[in-house]
Amino acid sequence: MPFLIVGIALLALKLGEVGPFTKLSWLWVALPFVLVVIWWEIVTPMLGLDKKKEHEDFEKEKKARMEKNRSGRSNNM
């Protein structure tokens, strides 16, 4: 996420022609976006961070269903 923020800031400064950013190469402006793509497409799946989030969401839904079933049974008795 920090790479994305830096990339957006560099892009805005380059397009706004602010100070020394006017002469900055487009490669430096594009680099943070390339790093974001590498992070999201390669590093995150390698570390299992995408599956970890899905697993946490699944566990929350599972707990919610279990609580709903428990409260439904106690109301019926």
Produce the secondary structure layout.
Blueprint: H1 2-15, H2 26-47, H3 49-76
Helix pairs in contact: 1-2
Task: Give your account of this protein's structure.
Helix content is 83%, strand content 0%. By secondary structure, the protein is mainly alpha-helical. The protein has one domain (2-76). Helix 1 runs antiparallel to helix 2 (26-47). The mean pLDDT is 86.
How many separate helices?
Answer: 3
For the residues shown, what is the average pLDDT?
86
The topology string of helices and strands comes to HHH
Task: Report low-confidence residues grouped into runs of 5 or more.
Answer: none
Structural class: mainly alpha
**Computed CA radius of gyration, to the nearest angstrom:** 23 Å
Tell the overall outline: elongated
User: Main β-sheet, in a few words?
Assistant: none
